């Protein structure tokens, strides 16, 4: 049997969940705890309320977020996998030099494209490294939810609404902005119909009904973009050329491994100075992000 791939070494969830500690901080989690087939405490990850309450407990216990909630219909992201991206970005910013101290503090500026109603990347990133985040979304409801989370926790996170859904960086990166890194979890599907079918397959496989889908399914902007993930990232690369001197590294998750080859060609046409593919592992699943820069290494140090 294949060994289970592990999270980033600095990930707080590397050894699993300490349910006793989580319940001590968030008693509302206790009714959702069940025993796994091997007798270990867990939750039913097919239950949206259980997952949402687990997220609340994790954010409260490990990231000092007292209030966290999302409206029905928005994606409820798994915390361990999301924070892995943050830790790998910290490594990216060291530029492979093991002698460099990990980047910490509010002078490190991060742009989160598609920050979502959950605000999960800024919440975990500011807690782990003290970075300053700017979160962008095309969904006004997501920005409203994110703002409520910020205000309830006294957090200074810059939130910006992208008013033109055809743009990614345009209209949100201002002339006086400078970012060390951008990040994004792009929409996967190529059309609303594809997204709907994908959601139906997911919930049919889980044996869940309409109420679960409504609570957990995700909004259009989270799920699909005309042409799918590859078209979204291609546009992102194209727009990034306009902000080449304002961002040290551009990054985005890539769900489909088959998209890496065409992205290699797209990045070549954009004449980037350097690009990387960073593999990440979460349990039985592997994921990755690509990172590219227009600034040569000797100029980055």
From the alpha carbons, calculate the radius of gyration and give it in angstroms: 19 Å
Assigned CATH architecture: 3-Layer(aba) Sandwich
The chain-level mean pLDDT equals 88
By secondary-structure content and strand pairing, the structural class works out as alpha/beta
Largest sheet: 7 strands, mixed
Question: What is the string of SSEs from the N terminus onward?
Answer: HEEHHEHEHEEHHHHEHEEH
| Sheet with most strands: strand arrangement | 5-4-3-6-7-9-8
Describe the global form.
globular
Proportion of beta-strand residues: 15-25%
The first-level CATH class name: Alpha Beta
Number of domains: 1
Number of strands: 9
CATH 4th-level superfamily = Vaccinia Virus protein VP39
Q: Looking at CATH, which topology would you report?
A: Rossmann fold
Low-confidence stretches: 209-215
Helicity, as a percent range: 25-40%
- By DSSP (H or I, 4+ residues per run), the number of helices equals 11
Cα(first) to Cα(last) distance is: 44 Å
Secondary structure layout plus pairing:
Blueprint: H1 19-25, E1 33-35, E2 41-43, H2 48-63, H3 79-93, E3 109-113, H4 120-129, E4 132-137, H5 140-153, E5 158-161, E6 179-184, H6 192-206, H7 210-216, H8 220-223, H9 228-240, E7 247-253, H10 260-269, E8 274-282, E9 285-293, H11 297-300
Parallel strand pairs: 3-4, 3-6, 4-5, 6-7
Antiparallel strand pairs: 1-2, 7-9, 8-9
């Amino acid at each position: 049997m294949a060994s289970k791939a592990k999270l980033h070494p600095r990930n707080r969830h590397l050894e699993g969940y300490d349910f006793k500690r989580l319940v001590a901080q968030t008693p509302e989690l206790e009714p959702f705890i069940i025993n796994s087939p091997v007798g270990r405490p867990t939750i039913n990850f097919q239950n949206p309320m259980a997952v949402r309450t687990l997220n609340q407990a994790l954010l409260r216990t490990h990231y000092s977020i007292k209030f966290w909630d999302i409206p029905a219909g928005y994606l409820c992201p798994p915390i361990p996998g999301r924070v892995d991206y943050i830790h790998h970005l910290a490594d990216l910013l060291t530029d492979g030099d093991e002698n460099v101290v990990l980047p910490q503090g509010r002078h490190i500026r991060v742009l989160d494209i598609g920050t979502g109603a959950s605000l999960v990347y800024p919440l975990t990133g500011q807690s782990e490294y003290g970075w300053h985040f700017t979160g962008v979304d095309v969904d006004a409801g997501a920005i409203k939810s994110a703002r409520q989370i910020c205000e309830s926790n006294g957090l200074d996170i810059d939130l910006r609404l992208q008013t033109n859904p055809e743009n990614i960086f345009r209209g949100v990166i201002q002339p006086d902005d400078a970012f060390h890194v951008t990040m994004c979890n792009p929409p996967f599907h190529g059309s609303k119909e594809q997204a709907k079918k994908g959601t139906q397959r997911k919930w049919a496989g889980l044996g869940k009904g309409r109420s679960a889908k409504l609570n957990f399914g995700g909004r259009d902007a989270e799920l699909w973009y005309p042409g799918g993930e590859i078209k979204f990232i291609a546009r992102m690369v194209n727009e990034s050329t306009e902000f080449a001197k304002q961002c040290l590294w551009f990054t985005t998750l890539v769900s489909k491994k088959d998209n890496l080859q065409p992205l290699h060609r797209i990045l070549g046409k954009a004449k980037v100075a350097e690009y990387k593919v960073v593999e990440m592992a979460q349990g039985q699943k592997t994921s990755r992000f690509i990172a590219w820069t227009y600034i040569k290494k000797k100029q980055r140090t």
